[in-house]
Design goal:
Blueprint (H helix, E strand, L loop, with lengths): L1 E6 L3 H16 L3 E2 L8 E6 L4 H21 L2 E6 H6 L2 H5 L5 E3 L7 H10 L3 E3 L21 E5 L1 E2 L10 H5 L3 E2 L2 H13 L4 E5 L15 H9 L6 E5 L8 H9 L6 E3 L7 H6 L6 H14 L4 E8 L6 H14 L3 E6 L17 H24 L5 E9 L6 E5 L5 E5 L8 E9 L4 E5 L1
Parallel strand pairs: 1-2, 1-3, 3-4, 4-5, 5-6, 7-10, 10-11, 12-13, 13-14, 17-19
Antiparallel strand pairs: 8-9, 15-16, 15-18, 16-17, 18-19
Helix pairs in contact: 9-11, 12-13
This protein binds S-adenosyl-L-homocysteine, iron/sulfur cluster and FE3-S4 cluster.
Length: 433
């Protein structure tokens, strides 16, 4: 049997797809590159914004045609499945199985039952921690790997669907995480990216290692050369964690720290739990500990109540902090969230105009920062051939900047020293020293 998995959404979802793919492969199924060549197609969905949902519904329409023609088994997993539950089958009667993010470990059962002709679903236990314990084999020749350290979110930011579809926070035992990372190092993995919706809450209230203590242990795993993590919540970014950036040699000087809005008034409505002055104070602390740290963030524009002044506050923050990059989104109303009940909605065209303006400002800042690296030499972990040019390799600096340069394929998987010769908007061009 051949299978194909299409993934939407965040890194947690990408990794969940890797977990399902692992289960299918160890049960004798073969991955293929195109849905039309597969006997089983799984769509791992995201419902964080309306656009992500629309992408799913347009894909599933095309998959129905495939099913009509070839009898392909179709499964829907992830956050839309968890949100819609049994309703999904009513809307899309042709699907064969469905389960939320906490049910992905049951994918083999789902396939067996579908092949027997019965609809399988699993939304029952959003608190189920079984997916935490799946350690997928890294793909052949990969040099970096995701490692799940916790699941769920307790923060309930007023706009966000994630706590509803991913359930409450639960942390994986540190022993288990360390065993997985040692195993990855033995298989040649050089970089680990620790995953959780809010990694700063790792093991909160549990008698196990804190997040900084976990980082320290990972830092001494032989073979692992780089450590990154996503995502941090500003309100929980502790002094101990900030200190790690000055202390742990394998922890890359890079952090993703979403601010969401530059206005205290909006942050309050968003239920974010910090003020802009507190946020800026944490940025200053990070830069004091590690002057060269790269900082990226997420930001939402057009949240209900965002007037011109509140938007100006966001622009001011962006100019002041000079982020290395921002993922910015127009607010998307999600049903059953607190923000869906708020007045003073911002018209869509205004939100999109603000988004365009913010993105133009940030583009200039990112370009300026990338150009400022010209002439500097960086350790680059070589990931593979560059997509754009066959005779070029691509890799990342510790700051997570992409560098393309000419080099031999035997460099792949190694850290080489590269001098930047040109900084562009999204990448750097360099030459090996
Ligand atoms: N746990 C992470 C990421 C959550 S989702 C965190 O807290 O940072 C990724 C990003 O999507 C969020 O940071 C936010 O910027 C954006 N997002 C979430 N819900 C949204 C919504 N309803 N409309 C627009 N953007 C949203
Ligand atoms: Fe959503 Fe907020 Fe949780 Fe992030 S911290 S997943 S934005 S509720
Ligand atoms: Fe989307 Fe679910 Fe991630 S809603 S952003 S796939 S947690």
């Amino acid at each position: 049997m051949r299978f194909y998995i299409e993934t939407f959404g965040c890194q947690m979802n990408e990794h969940d797809s890797e977990k399902m793919s692992h289960l299918l492969r160890i049960n004798g199924f073969t991955p293929v590159q195109e849905a039309r060549d597969a006997d089983i197609v799984i769509v791992n969905t995201c419902s964080v914004r309306e656009k992500a949902e629309q992408k799913f519904y347009s894909l599933i329409g095309r998959l129905k045609k495939l099913k009509d023609k070839k009898g392909t088994i179709i499964g829907v997993t992830g956050c839309i499945a968890q949100q819609e539950k049994e309703m999904l089958k009513e809307r899309l009667p042709f699907i064969d199985f469905a389960m939320g993010p906490s049910g992905i470990h049951t994918v083999m059962d789902a396939i067996t039952r579908s092949r027997e002709g019965s609809f399988f679903y699993d939304f029952s236990d959003n608190g189920c921690v079984a997916p935490l314990f799946l350690s997928p084999e890294p793909a052949q020749d990969s040099i970096k790997a995701y490692v799940t350290i916790m699941k769920g979110c307790n923060n309930f930011c007023s706009y966000c669907i994630v706590p509803y579809v991913r359930g409450r926070e639960a942390s994986r035992d540190s022993h288990d995480i360390l065993e997985e990372i040692k195993g990855l190092a033995e298989k040649g993995i050089k970089e680990v990216i620790l995953l959780g919706q809010n990694v700063n809450s790792y093991n909160k209230g549990k008698n196990d290692l804190s997040f900084p203590a976990l980082l320290e242990k990972i830092n001494s795993v032989d073979g692992i050369e780089r450590i990154r993590f996503v995502t941090s919540h500003p309100k929980d970014l502790s002094h101990e964690l900030i200190e790690c950036f000055g202390r742990l040699d394998k922890l890359c000087e890079q952090i993703h720290l979403p601010f969401q809005s530059g206005s205290d008034k909006i942050l309050k409505l968003m239920n974010r739990g910090y003020s802009i002055s507190e946020y800026v104070e944490k940025i200053d602390k990070l830069r004091r500990v590690q002057s060269d740290i790269a900082i990226t963030a997420d930001c939402i524009v057009g949240f209900p109540g965002e007037d011109e002044e509140a938007f100006r506050d966001t622009i001011e923050l962006v100019k002041k902090v000079e982020f290395d990059g921002i993922f910015s989104f127009a607010y998307s109303k999600r049903k059953n969230t607190k923000a869906a009940t708020l007045d003073n909605e911002v018209p869509r065209d205004v939100a999109l105009k603000r988004l365009g303006y913010l993105q133009a400002i940030q583009k200039g800042i990112t370009l300026k920062k990338n150009q400022a690296t010209e002439g500097r030499v960086f350790d680059v972990l070589v990931e593979g051939r560059s997509k754009n040019s066959q005779d070029e390799l691509t890799g990342r600096t510790r700051h997570n900047r992409i560098v393309n340069f000419k080099g031999d394929t035997d460099m792949i998987g190694r850290i080489v020293q590269v001098k930047v010769i040109k900084g562009y908007a999204n990448s750097l061009k360099g030459e090996v020293l």
